[in-house]
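Chapter review: from sequence to fold.
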Amino acid sequence: MNDLKESIKIKKSTKKGHYINLPTSKDKVEMGLLKIATAGSVDDGKSTLIGRILYDTKSLTTDKLEAIEKTSKQKGYDYLDFSLATDGLVAEREQGITIDVAHIYFSTKTKSYIIADTPGHIEYTRNMVTGASTSQAAIILIDARKGVIEQTNRHFFINNLLRIKEVIVAINKMDLVDFSEEKYNAIKADFQELMSKRDYQDQKITFIPVSALKGDNVVNKSNHTPWYQGQTLLEHLEIIDNQDIYNRGTPRFPIQYIIRPKTNEFHDYRGYAGKVYGGELNVGDEIVVLPSQTKSKIKEIYFYDKKYQTASRRSSVTITLEDNINISRGDMIVKVNDLPTINKQFTATVSWMDSKKLFIGEKYVLQHGVNKVLAKVDTIHHVINPDYSGINPDVNGLGINDIASVTFKLNKPIFYDVFKNHRTNGSFILIDMQSNNTVGVGFIQ
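The token string follows.
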């Protein structure tokens, strides 16, 4: 699909409704859009950092900038309060904290970004998981005056749990410690000790000393840190190669829709539409359809009305097969000899998000990709302390924000991979059957 010339449009949240055009070829899409999750404790300066990036990249609309200037003046500040650019809820503005996940859109000449501004409070752990679940990179903020604290452990744990490969540790408020190299190195050493506790070793960790309020090393290089020879935060984001940060795996093609035009021209046409995850599919590949385990070969790959030899990962395409097979929505096409696990039972790490507790024996709708099955909680093995302080095996239920190891039994098999090998095919959500609310998210072990 390298010669694909069509484009998609992603709406940027500005007053004028500006659009960013992103070509859909494999290389340009992956180099063109980066999703970032932020994490930091109360008053570490996450919202200020994001506001500073928007300001220095000239991504703020005129009316938004005027509102920030007006409000900052009313509060008696002798500086612009950039946190106002992201704190959307009234309670957030009043308390000066982030409560809900906000998604901020901006772009440079070379890349487009979506930043998930997530809360740092322990009571909003579920929000942190939600914001980071679709991100490929993360920024963890540390207050230079406080250093690595318990919440830092929790933020790093979540990034480790979600297998985020690119993590930037922004040591913020360096202006309040006189841009001390000694202080920066001490915090860096403490964080590196924390890194030794992780079970996911493929992460790239980058340390950057910044002052979000003053703008040092955020977008522009600081004159106050001559001892720091690295890149600014934005410079580093600009050179991240998306092809390196997406978790690669074997290709998985869950069927979302069966295309049967039933016109004279396409009377016998049968296409299978969906999105490719984990790898590539090619014309001529020998495949297996799950759950029937019927074999065939890929005959054609379509994007709209154009044919291609390859369907790259993350591309939405329509596939035809050489054989007329009975395939339904929720089935999955995989390569021969690359089958996922097919089972009615598995153990997963679950992040519980509902005020109503989870207990052994409870039943939920488990949605895995486009498939929905009935799931029963068989065993709660232990609750995991997300600050790396160990586990608690003496539990009989999960409360809101708990993270635990749980075994489920299903009413019919699903075809899955372990999360560490395949982020998409190794994750699921739990839905309450009465309220229809999403109450938990799981990562298959």
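Two observations follow directly from the output. Residues 295 and 419 are 26 Å apart (CA to CA). The first strand starts at residue 7 and ends at 11.
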